[in-house]
Amino acid sequence: MGFLLNGAWTQEDALPAAADGAFIRKDSQFRHWITPDGSPGPSGEGGFAAEAGRYHLHVSLACPWAHRALIFRALKGLEEMITVSVTHWLMGDQGWSFAPGPGVVPDPILGAAHLHEVYRAAEPGYTGRVTVPVLWDKARRRIVNNESAEIIRMLNSAFDGIGARPGDFYPDAQRAEIDALNARIYASVNNGVYQAGFARSQAAHDAAIGPLFETLAELECRLGGSRYLLGDRVTEADWRLFTTLIRFDPVYVGHFRCDRRRILDHPNLWGWLRELYQWPGIAATVDFDHIRRHYYLSHKQLNPTGILPAGPDLDFHAPHGRERLG
To answer: Which of the two ends of the chain, N or C, has the fewest CB atoms closer than 10 A to its terminal CB?
Structure first.
């Protein structure tokens, strides 16, 4: 791992951790919003109007947070409006790179070799982590936002007036429910798998594993009587959970030692996961080769031998049977 310190790339040997060994995730720093008319959003400054061709996404196909942005770009039919670059799966000494490789899409904006060059171009004296996704403004040549939870809300509605595909995954009537469920799932599942995987002590690992599987059990029960997390309509909450669970059995069970139960052992979650995978355009956003290679081969502290496991063999195209709840 590494970070930018006053605009200079700096190596860091250790992941951030609390005194008890618990993993700490830092907050994103660029928090401006694209809005239909360029007016200010909930945070940051204004001046970022929704325009076709103006914005660019830098993503990793391995990263669940960046995956959210790719999914909403596909759901809303924004592929022609918002261009995209894809990093190499290996996070090396210089962080995310655009080194040639299968599935890599080079940075056409700056010709950057590494993602930290994009951050430095936006803010020459930047200090902080270099993460994906990054939403870049080609007109103002700066980063709009690097917080996935906010980027997907912009993609959900900001471009509706200029030809985005219809569909609202954060409807007014369900926002309070979505926010509450998102908060619970983020703390114990989305971030919980990382807290378990990157824990520096047995106590910290155990403290993450308990809430993780408690929440999965609750979600399994919920989906026994509801087609989606909040009824018969897919919402943002479903897609935010999806990007973690699609990685769960292939990576988190083994690599992050989240092996109490697989998603395959939860019939309702497993059917729900297959249904969302089979939504139009979604399978194309999932790259298991990038996912598995990134986690097993980038995290030397967890897998020092660099051995890539062969499994598991999962059929995401099998009938999901969720129509009975529709």
So the answer is: C
Residue among 124, 123, 111 nearest 85 (CA) = 111
With 90 as the cut, is the pLDDT of residue 218 above it? yes
The question of whether 228 is a catalytic residue gets the answer no
Neighbour-count burial of 61, counting CB atoms closer than 10 A to its CB (0-12 exposed, 13-18 middle, 19+ buried)? buried
Domains and CATH numbers, the chain: 2-162 (3.40.30.10), 172-325 (1.20.1050.10)
Of the residues 119, 126, 194, 296, only one is catalytic, namely 194
Catalytic residue among 63, 119, 126, 252: 63
Contacts of 52 (CB under 8 A, 6+ apart): 80, 81, 159, 162, 163
Q: How far apart are CA 88 and CA 102, in angstroms?
A: 8
Residue 221: active-site member: no
pTM of the model: 0.94
